[in-house]
Every structure is written in C-alpha cells, then in structure tokens.
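Q: what sequence does this backbone want?
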C-alpha cells in the first residue's frame, strides 16, 4: 500500500515496485492539486496496480481499504509538501501531515489487532519524511539520524510532528515502523511549481528565473528514482523502530542548481534564446525562515542496507531536463488542473516578484 502515489515521489516508488518486485500495489491518493492521474498513466493498466481515490484523513475509509486489501506494508508518502504553500496557509499541512498520519497509525494498529494471520504479523509501517525536520546547518557538518529536531517552516514542523507520532506508536504500542528522512529530490513528474521544474519552464519560455536571496542556500540533491530504490529497501529490510537518512552526496547552492540546469538547456536547445539561459536569473527577496544549509550523512542506509545512488547530480539533472522538454503535455495538463483549482497565491506572487524553491 502506497499513499500519495499520484505525486512525484510516490509515483516513482510505484514504478519501482511494479518493475522490480513481484507484488500488488494499492495507491491511495486524494488527488489534491499535487496529485495527478497523468502521472500514473504509465502503470494505470498494469493488473498488479490498484488505485483508490481517498483521503488519509478519512479514518473509516482507511479502515475499509486495510480490510479490503490486507496490506503487507504501507509506505506513507501522502502529504502537503510545498514549503511556500505552508507559509501561505498551514492548515492543510496540519490536517494531512499530522492528523492523516495519526489516522493511518491507528488504522494500522487496529488492523494488526484484528488479524491473526501471517500478513498482519509481518506488517510494516514506513513513514517517509524529510531532512527539513532537522532545521538548518551552518558551514560545517551533516545531518545524522541522531541530529536533534529543529523544524523552522510549518511544513517541516508538520513532518516533524508526524515523525514523533510514528516513533511514539512504536515505543508505546509496538507498531512495527521504520522512518526515513531524505534530502531534496528532483526528477520526472515533479509538480511544475517546485524549484527544478520551475527553472526549466521559466527558462524555455524566456521568463526571468527567480532565486531567493543571494542564491547561496545549500541543499543536498537526490534523483527521485534513487530515493524510490532506497525507500523500498528501507521498507523491506530496515530495522523496526529505526530511522534512515537518505541523501545524494550532492550539496549545491541554489545558484549552482540554476546554472547547471541553464547549462544543460544551452546545450539541449542549441542557443535557441540567442544568449545563455543563466542571463534570465533574477535574485529576489528571501523566503521567511529560509534554512541556510541541509546536508545528509547517509552512511547508515549505505552500510546497513547496501544502498547508494546511481545517478550523479549532473547525470540525473540531464535526464530531468530531457524529461521536461519531452513531456510538455504532462506539464500543461498539471498546470491546467491547477488553474481550474486555483494556484497557491504565494507561489504566483513569488514567481511574479520574489523566489521559488522546493
Ligand atoms: P507531492 O506533493 O508531489 O505528492 C503528494 C501526494 O500526496 C499527491 O499525489 C497528493 O494528491 C497526495 N495527498 C495529499 N494529501 C492527501 C491526503 N489527505 N490523502 C491522500 N493523498 C493525499 O509530494 P512529494 O514531493 O512526492 O513528496 C512525497 C513525500 O516525500 C512527502 O511525505 C514529503 O514530505 C516527502 N519528501 C519529499 C521530498 C522532496 O524533495 N519532494 C524530500 C524528502 C521527503
């Protein structure tokens, strides 16, 4: 069972499971502005795939789905995930990320208590979280699994709260859980308002590319398929009650990310603009509470579970830019859906006048 499988990372997890594992996959997704059936099109007709349009905050619905499918594991990715939106209106973040996670924990607990068969006894609950729960780093150091929680944005605080609930359900009720905290992802099917897709779409339409502050905030970047492979390993083999940090060993400033994407576009579009794409970069007012640096020490997942990223930052970014250039229809479908539902006011405002970031 995967929640949030019509989103960016959840869909990559489902692709990975269907391609590399012999299992049935149930995708539970509410199809918010961030969830799109177009993203699931490549596997919609796979007989091993099942879609359930449902809200993780709806406890009776979740109980019904557990009863119907008798899952061996749940990988919980459904979330409100955009920091800018959490600053504009935190309500949905509290509801889905905290209350939704609580609902799933209770549903899983009831499921195990009610079932005496082997499926429920080997059941695992995997909570997929972010490195943003650890707050910000200075010039030195990396986040480990023992780093203290110091979330700074409403998004990060809601994910931190969910992490704490998951740990507590393990310690108090013995729920078999694993957790993972990952750095910034990039790759195909990421919502067009996020940082890397935004750079590509602004550049190809020759609009300015807004970058917060001086562009020197540092993030660790991981290609989404590498994250999906790590998540499946953690779900299957992670030690219960333990958390795993997942990172790409690829620290880059925001400005470096934009310049890398622009350099790839210069080559791919062979000078269509008549001048380098990076001339479109525009530094704009910083985001409130903007964390300076995130970076991950991923030695636990590497040493204990044998995971390592396959893509370098450069190879993954080349694949990503190529995907967006060849999938303009997907981008348009998502943008049309959003214009019907109404875009995030803050995102529109920021793209127009200030910055934008994952
Ligand atoms: P996303 O915004 O692309 O997708 C989220 C999905 O969850 C969407 O399909 C949406 O429809 C669904 N959803 C939202 N609310 C729901 C609800 N109440 N019930 C059911 N479905 C609901 O997000 P993403 O980038 O794919 O992130 C997935 C998970 O990974 C999140 O938990 C996020 O915190 C975590 N994460 C993301 C990143 C990143 O760089 N994107 C990094 C680390 C961790």
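A:
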């Amino acid at each position: 069972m995967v929640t949030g499988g019509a989103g960016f990372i959840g869909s990559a997890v489902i692709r990975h499971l269907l391609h590399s594992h012999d299992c049935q996959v149930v995708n539970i997704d509410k199809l918010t502005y961030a969830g799109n059936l177009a993203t699931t099109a490549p596997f919609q007709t796979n007989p091993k795939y099942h879609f359930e349009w449902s809200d993780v905050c709806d406890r009776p619905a979740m109980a019904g789905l557990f009863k119907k499918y008798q899952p061996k594991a749940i990988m919980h990715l459904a979330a409100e995930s955009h920091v800018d939106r959490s600053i504009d209106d935190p309500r949905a973040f509290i509801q889905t990320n905290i209350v939704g996670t609580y609902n799933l924990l209770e549903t899983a607990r009831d499921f195990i208590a009610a079932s005496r068969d082997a499926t429920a006894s080997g059941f695992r609950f995997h909570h997929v979280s972010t490195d943003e729960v650890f707050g910000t780093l200075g010039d030195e150091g990396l986040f480990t699994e023992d780093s203290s929680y110091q979330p700074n944005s409403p998004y990060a605080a809601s994910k931190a709260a969910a992490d704490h609930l998951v740990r507590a359900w393990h310690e108090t009720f013995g729920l078999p859980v694993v957790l993972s905290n990952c750095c910034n992802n990039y790759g195909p099917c990421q919502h067009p308002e996020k940082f890397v897709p935004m750079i590509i779409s602004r550049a190809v339409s020759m609009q300015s590319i807004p970058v917060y502050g001086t562009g020197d905030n540092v993030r660790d970047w991981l290609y989404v398929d590498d994250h999906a492979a790590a998540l499946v390993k953690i779900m299957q083999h992670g030690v219960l009650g333990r958390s795993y940090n997942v990172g790409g060993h690829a620290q880059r400033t925001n400005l470096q990310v934009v310049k890398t994407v622009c350099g790839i576009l210069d080559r791919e579009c062979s000078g269509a603009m008549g001048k380098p794409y990076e001339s479109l970069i525009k530094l704009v007012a910083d985001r409130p509470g903007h964390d300076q640096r995130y970076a991950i020490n991923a030695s636990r997942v590497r040493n204990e579970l044998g995971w390592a990223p396959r893509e370098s930052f450069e190879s993954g970014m080349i694949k990503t830019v190529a995907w967006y250039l060849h999938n303009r229809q997907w981008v348009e479908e998502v943008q049309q859906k959003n214009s019907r539902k109404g875009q995030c006011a803050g995102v529109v405002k920021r793209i127009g006048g200030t910055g934008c970031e994952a």
